[in-house]
Specification:
Strand content: 35-45%
Number of strands: 11
Distance between the termini: 32 Å
Shape: globular
Number of helices: 4
Structural class: alpha+beta
Order of helices and strands: EHHEEEEEHEHEEEE
Largest sheet: 11 strands, antiparallel
Radius of gyration: 17 Å
Helix content: 10-25%
C-alpha cells in the first residue's frame, strides 16, 4: 500500500466549501502517480520504453467530502493483474480513520507508439505486488449510453487539458462532467468509462441525460462516438 497526507486547498473546493468531486478524483489520480514513482515505475520512466498505464474505468463512492483546510490521507494498492489489465483500490480517509471516499479503478497497460494494449510486464507486477480487494460493491466497468441525450456544450481540446501522454487528462473529463451537473445535485457515487483518447484541437461534444436519481454525461466526437461516459448517482440524504 502507498499512503500520503494531503490537505484541502482553496483552489480545490467547490461552492459548498468542500473538496470538489473532480478534486477527489484528482487526489486519487495523484496518489496513483505518487505510488508509481515510489516503486520506480513512474509515467516518465515508462515512456522511455514506450509504455503507459491508461485508466479504463472508475467507480467511486463518496461518503463525505473534506472541507477547506482539512487534512486527509490518500492511499492506494493494486489488487489484481490479469492480461492487459491492472486493478487498484483507493481510499481517502480523515486523520481519525473515517472513510471519506473509496474507489475501484481498472487500468490497461499500453504501447504508446501504437495505442494498443499490451500484456502487463512481469516487472510491473513485481514492483506493485497485490493486496486484498477493498470491500466495496462490484459494478460493471461499462457505462451505458442513454437514448435521450441532449447536446450541452461543444469545446476544443486545449493544451491545458493534456497530460504527459499527449492525451486529454483523465481528470479533465470528470471536471467537464461535473461542470454541467445541476447545481444542487449531491453526488453519492460515480462511475466513469474511458473509450477513446481526445487529443489537442479535437472537437468534443458534451451530452447529458437525467434518469431518476442518475445523471449521465457523455463526451463524444462530432459523429457521436464516445470518448468518455459517466454516470453520477444523486445522494438521497
Amino acid at each position: 500500500m502507498y499512503r500520503y497526507k494531503d490537505r484541502v486547498s482553496f483552489s480545490r473546493i467547490d461552492y459548498t466549501g468542500r473538496l470538489s468531486v473532480s478534486g477527489v478524483v484528482d487526489a486519487m489520480q495523484d496518489c496513483c502517480m505518487f505510488h508509481s514513482e515510489a516503486v520506480g515505475r513512474s509515467s516518465q520512466e515508462l515512456l522511455k520504453i514506450n509504455r503507459a498505464w491508461l485508466v479504463n474505468s472508475w467507480h467511486i463512492v463518496f461518503k463525505r467530502r473534506p472541507k477547506m483546510g482539512e487534512e486527509f490521507f490518500a492511499s492506494t494498492w493494486a489488487y489484481q493483474f490479469k492480461g492487459v489489465f491492472g486493478c487498484r483500490n483507493l481510499l481517502l480517509e480523515s486523520l481519525d480513520s473515517e472513510v471519506l471516499a473509496c474507489a475501484d479503478s481498472h487500468w490497461f497497460y499500453a504501447d504508446v507508439t501504437t495505442g494498443k494494449p499490451e500484456k502487463v510486464a512481469q516487472e510491473e507486477i513485481e514492483a506493485y505486488g497485490t493486496q486484498e480487494r477493498y470491500d466495496m460493491p462490484k459494478k460493471s466497468r461499462k457505462v451505458r449510453c442513454p437514448d435521450n441525450l441532449e447536446l450541452c456544450q461543444k469545446l476544443t481540446v486545449c493544451q491545458s487539458y493534456l497530460d504527459t501522454n499527449g492525451h486529454m487528462n483523465n481528470g479533465q473529463y470528470i471536471r467537464l462532467a461535473t461542470n454541467v451537473l445541476p447545481k444542487d445535485f449531491a453526488v453519492s457515487e460515480l462511475r466513469a468509462e474511458y473509450r477513446l483518447a481526445a487529443h489537442l484541437d479535437d472537437e468534443i461534444y458534451i451530452r447529458t441525460a437525467k434518469e431518476n436519481d442518475c445523471f449521465y454525461v457523455i463526451i463524444t466526437d462530432e459523429q457521436e462516438q464516445p470518448y468518455f461516459l459517466c454516470e453520477l448517482i444523486e445522494s438521497d440524504q
